[in-house]
């Protein structure tokens, strides 16, 4: 069954055609076949990519078995870490973002950098699924949260500004548009600025960005525009990142630059730097450690990172088919009140 554009008007501008299994999209629960087709807008020049991706659910949502795999327009399984291009339009500095966590939700979903094909799955702590706490006055994630593909914060590189090494993940993005995105959605964003968080001694950049399709995108072009048009949002972002681990018994996170956001130009250069680290990783110039660099579109056939179509199908085949959604624990909805220091 195909959910046609007219049936989901809120998504029509993004050109979304959905065949999804038990997934909430912008408040609408769809119980249909498993796969979400996300089609990018038509190319307007040679620098802009016209790409489409689908996501395929495996396992049972809200359980340890759940995985979200990606396919390209040819039906080939791809890695959201390695195969989706960083740029959507290089000439305009428009980047792709893979949405891992829709705004207002609590499930800590992330690209599984150590798993074959790097599907999205829920983070696990001590054998239990991880949910972020609602630290008053916040509810879940306060942005659409995701990552820029083909980037990597190198744990072997000590950043000159933060004095700390990278956190071994793709660079994170907080998308601040009006629409609540869906998990696995691949969107195009323009970058507005960046926050340098220090998480347990590691550099963990947080890029502020907005979907280019958002009605507010034309008015938001740099970090100062967020302060002007969305007063309080930047302060709330720092507060969220500072305190979100406290309910788990962790100390408050710290920030470089005294928690002050850097502007768009600084952010873009930071992203380009992490792209350079990723290129060194995928070309075997940097030790991968525990990361899984298998990909189906980037590496040459003689590379150990090259994953054939049959290998990719086998990876997905080893997981369980999409099953019944489990209930999210009621405790996830509790408020956590914590006095600011």
Could you characterize the architecture of this molecule?
This protein has a 5-stranded antiparallel beta sheet with strand order 1-4-5-6-7, with helices on one face. The chain has a 5-stranded mixed barrel with strand order 9-15-17-19-18. It has a two-stranded antiparallel ribbon with strand order 2-3. It has helices spanning 223-229, 233-243, 264-282, 309-317; strands at 16-18, 21-25, 28-31, 36-39, 52-58, 67-72, 77-78, 87-89, 94-101, 109-111, 120-122, 124-125, 128-129, 134-135, 144-147, 165-166, 172-175, 186-199, 202-211, 254-255, 335-336. With 341 residues, the chain is α+β, with helices and mostly antiparallel strands. The model is unreliable at 1-47 (pLDDT under 50). The radius of gyration is 19 Å and the shape is globular. The relative contact order is 0.16. It has 4 helices and 21 strands. It comes from Oncorhynchus kisutch. GO terms for molecular function: inorganic diphosphate phosphatase activity; magnesium ion binding. Belongs to the PPase family. Homodimer. Its cofactor is Mg(2+).
